[in-house]
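Could you join me in thinking about how sequence relates to backbone shape in a protein? Label the sequence line and the structure token line clearly, so we can match residues to local backbone shapes. Once you have written the record down, we can walk along the chain together.
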Amino acid sequence: LEILQIKFPTNWDCTQLMALNPGGKENCFLVLGESESGEIALVEQKKGDGRIVAVDLISLQEPEYGLNTENKYFFMVNAIGNRVKYGEYYPEKHKYAEFVDLLKDLGEKYPSIKIEEEGEATGEFKIYSMSMGNPSNPGILIYSNVHGNEWENSYGTYVFIKYLAEHKDQNIIDLDKYFLKVVPIVNPFGHEHMTRQNKNLVDLNRNGDYFWDKYIGADPGNYKPGAYDWKGTYPFSEPESKIYKNISESGNFLALLDLHGNPSGTGFNKWMGVAANTKPDAFEKGVLFKEAFNNSIRGRYILMQKKEKKPELMTIEKIRKSKLSPNLYNTISNDRYGYIVELLCGYGSTGFIVMQDDIVCELCEAFCKVFAP
């Protein structure tokens, strides 16, 4: 294995690259990847029965809290280090109906997966879930996309369920002993329109009943429908929240995982929260969860967040106890283990969806192994 560090002229195409290679069209360089600004980042050239792959580690800016260069070393790391295990690429973000079609197709292909319509959300959308195993068994509940503009995590949950169905010999969760339920998109309207709130302008993750009456929002002087964290007119006022509550109370769930996200510039993507209304030893269990994830993902991705002086490994660094707020996971974690994890989100395209899918699947695997051993 030889790593070539080179710089490609901006906006070169295959014709121009061919001029460097007298072997003709059959030996043309194939552009495998570009930056979001159109710079060539990864090329391949066939050589006999093999190939040469070159990655640009020079011209793209250093990884920092921008969306187009955080993982310029992605391909090199996968060649020599802790490679991607789960990530899948999708060329574009699906409309909600298209995503639902993916779920239904998955259920038809794999009888071990049950796709269930859970109820109607705002905007005339319906919420769907994926489940595996016997619902009478102790269960794990994983959900994402409560905030519609944090859409990436839903793909990771889909890939995770698909992986379990495709690999009968998986050692992640014993589906003869445990039940697994995943709600990939809790906020269909927000997913469709790239908004944090639902159609009624409510932040669903402030619409639970835990500490609802005392919660005053991040901007009390302008706290009204459409505000960043508007809690609604009363606890569980929204159909999405009601559906969530019904799901959580319908099963014998041992633990629940709430997947959220932030743009990289915020500095809130290396932590997890422990629900305020949870089991006494939830923090200690959270440490086991954090370490299981970090040990699996360590060295695969890097990230430089706001206020950081240099790129660091993409791992969970801190565990925090939840604030007193009507977050949904605070509401239903009583006598269960409840956690929230913030991941990178807010991308305008699916350019980093492999990374997102991979990280989400690793989180789900670590969660299952700790709480459904």
Observations:
- The longest strand covers residues 253-262.
